[in-house]
């Protein structure tokens, strides 16, 4: 793990921090690795996916600890005040835009008028040193392996626990301060390592395969017919049947009607603008709805001749990610596509890993 080097733990006890379904899927090869080495394993997770975690790891001996029960209101308030007062909104363009879009006018006003701000390179260490004064929580074992994002960072503020932080998505290092003092940070490539140094001031950085994309390696080289035989879900089979032996362009949507209604409507306009081009060149546009998006978001396109709307997956816990059939379905969607048009989704990475051409659009 990380440049081919083994991280040696002083005791055979280790904790994992897993907040949601994508991180749960990514965690499997890492957890199984330590289980085979006879480590005692604790998994800290949220109550809403407790059953998923138990089912996903029913084949090994783990102990689940609920994050919800470790939340400290006093520390939560301190953490909130630190963030609103001391972090510069210009930490990154993504962070600034996020404040504008998702935080209240009052939050933005207070953040602007409080003039003292911590330098970007000092944010994580300053947060750690401040919160560890009040934080009495300790993880089981000497090490915790955590997958970004972490929404309760104050629990990591103690000198007793060493933290191995694994980047779960390409934009996490520049999206906001992680507020974690990582002893070791694992990312995908040199460019992202440089971003981790620049935005998070991490010193000890290694490389790891994108764990949530490992399904593309699993099916790489396998016959599509053999992969298809592993799928029994009728909805998945219907989608695949609709696109086989056709000139298909796949469009993974970036925003749902509940994420941002205006962007969702703009996205619909963009899709409709492609229809004449598709018809003239005998192409089909396959709309891949965003996971967790509401059913019906793209039903207004169902009557369009050159458009197919794929299976909705409105599962807020991302349980589909844990099912082999779903991964086989996603892989075959890619392999039956001539091109993926991508705006701001991570599915462009899936396509690249499956050796499918990607047209990456920059729409401002």
A few lines on this structure:
With 364 residues, this protein is α/β, with parallel strands linked by helices.
Can you put this structure into words, describing what you see?
The chain has 364 residues and is α/β, with parallel strands linked by helices. The protein has helices at 21-36, 50-56, 73-86, 93-102, 105-113, 123-131, 172-175, 190-200, 214-219, 224-229, 234-243, 261-280, 324-335, 347-353, and strands at residues 13-18, 40-45, 63-66, 143-147, 162-166, 184-187, 205-207, 248-252, 284-288, 307-309, 339-342, 358-360. Strands 3-2-1-4-5-6-7 form a seven-stranded parallel β-sheet, sandwiched between helices. Helix 14 links the parallel strand 11 and strand 12. Helix 11 runs parallel beside helix 13 (324-335). The longest helix is centred in the C-terminal third of the chain and has 20 residues, at 261-280. It starts with 12 loop residues before the first strand and ends with a strand. The mean pLDDT is 91.
Topology:
Blueprint: E1 13-18, H1 21-36, E2 40-45, H2 50-56, E3 63-66, H3 73-86, H4 93-102, H5 105-113, H6 123-131, E4 143-147, E5 162-166, H7 172-175, E6 184-187, H8 190-200, E7 205-207, H9 214-219, H10 224-229, H11 234-243, E8 248-252, H12 261-280, E9 284-288, E10 307-309, H13 324-335, E11 339-342, H14 347-353, E12 358-360
Parallel strand pairs: 1-2, 1-4, 2-3, 4-5, 5-6, 6-7, 8-9, 8-11, 9-10, 11-12
């Amino acid at each position: 793990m990380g440049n081919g080097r083994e991280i040696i733990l002083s005791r055979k006890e280790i904790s994992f921090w897993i907040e949601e379904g994508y991180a749960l899927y990514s965690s499997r090869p890492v957890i199984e690795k330590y289980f085979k080495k006879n480590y005692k394993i604790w998994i800290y997770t949220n109550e809403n996916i407790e059953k998923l975690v138990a089912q996903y790891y029913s084949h090994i001996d783990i102990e689940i600890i609920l994050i919800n029960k470790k939340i400290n209101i006093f520390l939560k308030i301190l953490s909130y005040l630190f963030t609103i007062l001391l972090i510069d909104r210009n930490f990154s363009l993504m962070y600034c835009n996020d404040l504008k879009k998702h935080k209240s006018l009052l939050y933005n006003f207070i953040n602007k008028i409080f003039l003292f701000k911590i330098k970007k390179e000092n944010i994580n260490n300053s947060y750690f040193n401040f919160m560890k004064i009040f934080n009495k929580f300790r993880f089981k074992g000497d090490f915790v392996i955590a997958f970004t994002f972490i929404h309760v960072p104050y629990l990591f503020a103690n000198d007793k626990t060493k933290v191995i932080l694994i980047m779960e998505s390409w934009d996490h290092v520049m999206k906001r301060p992680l507020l974690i003092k990582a002893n070791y940070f694992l990312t995908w490539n040199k460019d992202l390592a440089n971003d981790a140094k620049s935005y998070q001031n991490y010193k000890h950085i290694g490389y790891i395969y994108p764990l949530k994309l490992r399904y593309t390696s699993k099916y790489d080289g396998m016959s599509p017919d053999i992969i298809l035989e592993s799928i029994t879900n009728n909805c998945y089979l219907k989608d695949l049947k609709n696109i086989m032996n056709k000139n298909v362009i796949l469009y993974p949507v970036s925003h749902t009607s509940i994420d941002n209604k205006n962007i969702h409507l703009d996205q619909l306009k963009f899709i409709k603008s492609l229809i004449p081009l598709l018809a003239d060149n005998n192409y089909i546009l396959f709309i891949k709805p965003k996971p967790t998006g509401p059913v019906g978001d793209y039903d207004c396109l169902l009557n369009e001749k050159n458009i197919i709307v794929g299976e909705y997956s409105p599962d807020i816990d991302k349980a589909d990610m844990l099912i082999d059939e779903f991964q086989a379905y996603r892989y075959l969607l890619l392999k039956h596509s001539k091109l993926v048009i991508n705006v701001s989704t991570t599915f462009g990475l899936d396509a690249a890993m499956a050796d499918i051409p990607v047209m990456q659009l920059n729409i401002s």
